[in-house]
Amino acid sequence: MIVRDFITQHPGATFDMMTPGGFVYLTPQKTKDLLDGNSVKGHPGCPEYAIEIDAEDLLMQTVITANYKNGAWNILTNIFQSDTNGRVTR
């Protein structure tokens, strides 16, 4: 499943993500902005080094694991492609 599908299935949720581009924290408003095509900030573990992550790049990443804990979805993503049948390919 890709990030776009996962966050769409959990409206109003908060997401704490570890992505290849860094850590991304999405409030419900930031999630809406992301789905509207706006980039988000990600950082390598230190917020002072935050960079912009393109919305489409993040939304097309594959969800590797997702766990709900302490009021937020904790998600690990990676950059994989899905074929037309939904199978993940590298």
Write up what this structure looks like.
There is one protein chain. It is globular and about 35 Å long. It has three helices and eight strands; from the N terminus they run αββαββαββββ. A four-stranded mixed β-sheet has the order 2-1-6-5. The protein has a two-stranded antiparallel ribbon with strand order 3-4. The protein has a two-stranded antiparallel sheet with strand order 7-8. It has one domain. It has 90 residues and is α+β, with helices and mostly antiparallel strands.
Helix segment tally? 3
Indicate the percent of residues in helices. Answer: 10-25%
Q: Approximately how much beta-strand content do the residues carry?
A: 35-45%
The N- to C-terminal Cα distance equals: 14 Å
Largest sheet: 4 strands, mixed
Order of helices and strands: HEEHEEHEEEE
- Molecular shape: globular
